[in-house]
Every structure is written in structure tokens, then in C-alpha cells.
Design a protein that fits this description.
It is built from 16 helices and 13 strands. By secondary structure, the chain is of the alpha/beta class. It folds into two domains: about 220 residues, Rossmann fold; about 150 residues, 3-Layer(aba) Sandwich (Rossmann fold).
Length: about 425
Amino acid sequence: MKVVLAAGKRGHYYLTARALRRAGILHRFVTSAYINRAHWAARWLPERRVAVRSDPALDGAPIQTAWDLELGYRLAAAIAGRRPSLRRLYNDRFDRRVGRSLDGGTVLHVANTYAWRSMRVAQQRRMSVVVDQQSAHPDTIRACRERVYDALQLPVPQGDAARETRIRDEIESADLVLAPSPFVLEENVRHGIPRERQRFVPIGVDTRLFQPEALDATPERAGPLRVLFAGTASVLKGCVTLLQAAERCGPKTVELTWVGAMRAEMRPYVEQTRVPLRHIAPVAQQELAAQYRAADVVCLPSHVEGSALVIYEAMACGRPCIATNEAGTVIRDGVDGAIVPAGDADALAQTLQAMAADPEGRATLGRAARERVGEFDVAGYGRRLIEAYGALAEPRSTNGTFEHALEPTPKRGAAQ
């Protein structure tokens, strides 16, 4: 087996490349903007930039970059803003690049949204195609978006119909879909993706980079419960629910730190809140690990996700997490964290208050979280990938869906 791995963003795919290389089956890793630390140019770049786009464990790996596409996209976005049309154009160009990088491979493992054209080329070559699904089914996301924004009496943002069609076609036409959580897998089944063409493969985490300061230490911190949210602060990430819950906890009970970008839709809520809130721009992984360790609790009350990498990272740092089932989490409620219903500010407030009142309990949950996430290190992740690839033992012939198509097809009816 020779795997061509392709993803136009970092995500968890550097770890995927590590796992495939460790298994001896990584034929080529096609990515957007990777920096080889051994290259002379790396010495002239800020360390933060190098840290984001490099991985010492991949030194010497067969990596093919698309720097021209990445820089072109960034320049266009700086001029015109991060428009969906620009992202679609980037995805399509990267997808075409992948289709020209398949020589010698037997399996194409490609991230969702970058797969439509390259998987067509791969299947014509009788390669097996594995689509690594990054989020929930597009129909699930659309329904969730309408429900959540209506409940808040906010205008429902217009979805990217072309992107949704592309994602739908990719997961319907792949030989194998890797679902990052049971939530994603079951939603796929509900929308017509056969269960037998899917495998649940939790994503991996770098347990050497993300690790606690001391597993046996009980936090001795005076003052409010320090709650960290990491990711793009938005309505669908549950940030309104988090603000409402923190306010219901009462004064001086909770203080919030948000690390990552913030959508404009959140600013009115942030300006009105009485809860202490510190917002930090996106940071490199090493800095993010320090933020996890500085928190008492990490919270992601998302309405819809694939499987949030930040939960794995926080657990690896020995921090208890509060999340929803819709966040695609691996948390076991009451064992190594807490699960709350999406959109339920009262339930979240009760959970925050309970954790604020019980530092010993938080420490116990944190130790269990670190032990639990050990199942998802590079070795464990690699084993699950290889087991999933076993479903490709009898690859199908060229997929008829793509045989004559020149553009993604419109949304199929419910019967399909």
C-alpha cells in the first residue's frame, strides 16, 4: 500500500502524515505551506511562523507543497477579504494540484473539500479513495444553522451552496469515509451514506507537545474558575451559550479566555457581557499548550462539529473539558470531563459552578483525561488508520458517479 495524503491546511494532517510514515506507507504528503526547518530560508522567518508550518517528526518525509497557491490566496484575501468564493477557488486549485501528484500511489487519502477532482482522477486510475471528513454532513450543518440563529432571533447566514454540494459529492462517492466521531457517522447514515462505507477513526494528538505540568498536582488557585475556549468564536461554536452560562454563575465565579479569531456576530454579545473576558488572537501550538495548562477548565459548547481537535489537546494537557455530543467529543461524562446539551445555558452554568466548587474533582478529571487521550497518540491513531484501510482490501472499480461528470452534481433527492 502506498498512500498519497493530501490536505490544503494543517489541521490534524501533520499527525496523519507522521502516523502513515511510521507505518511505512506514506508515499507522498501534498500540503499547502510546509516549512522544512533544514532549509536556509527557515532561518529568515519568525519562529512563530516556522512552528506553525513545520514538524520535526516529518523531516525527510516526501512532502510536496503548494506555496504559490497559499501565498496567492493570502494576498487575495488581504485585498478582498476572506470571501467564500476565494476559499472555493483555492480549494479547487489545490484539488487540481493533488490530481497531478498521484503517480506511484495506490490509495488517495484526502481531506474533505479538497477531493472532488483529485478523487475522480484517482478512481480512474483504479486507486482507492479515502475521504477524511472534517465536519458534519452539510445538511446537518445547514439545519443546525437555521435552528440556532432563529432561536437567537438573528438573520440566518447564507450558506455556501457550492461548497456544500462539493462536500456531499465527495463523501457520497468515496470508497471509504473516515468519520471523526460517532455523531458525524450517524448523521451521515441519516443522510444516506451507507454505514459499511464508513469507519469511525478519532483524530490523533501530539501527546509530547500537549502535556500537563504535573499529573498529580491539584490546582491551588484562588479566585474565579478560569475557563478557556479555543477556536473561532462564533454562534455555532456555542459562544453565546457560554456567555449566558457564565453570567448565570453569578459574580466572581467564572472568568473567560478566548483564544482564536472572533466572528463579527459575537461582538455585540461580548460588549454587553458582565463576565471578565480576555480575547487572544490565534497562537502557535506551543503557546496554545501553555494556555491550556493555565486554565482550570476548557469549554467547547458547540452546536455542530466534526471532532474538535482542541478537546484532544486540552485533555492531553490534563485539563477537564466541558463539551456537547455535537462537538464530536471523546469525553466520557463524569469520568474525564462533562457533556452538556447543546444550547442549554442552565445546564452549562450548573456544570461550571460544580467545577468551580471542586478543585480536587477537577484534578481527578484532568488526570483521567490525560490517561484517556493516550489512546489517541500517534501510535494509536496510526493503528486505527491501518485498521480502517482494511476496508479497502477489495477496491471498487471506477466510481460511476464521476465517470462522466465535469462539475459537482446538484443535491440528490432524499431517496439517494
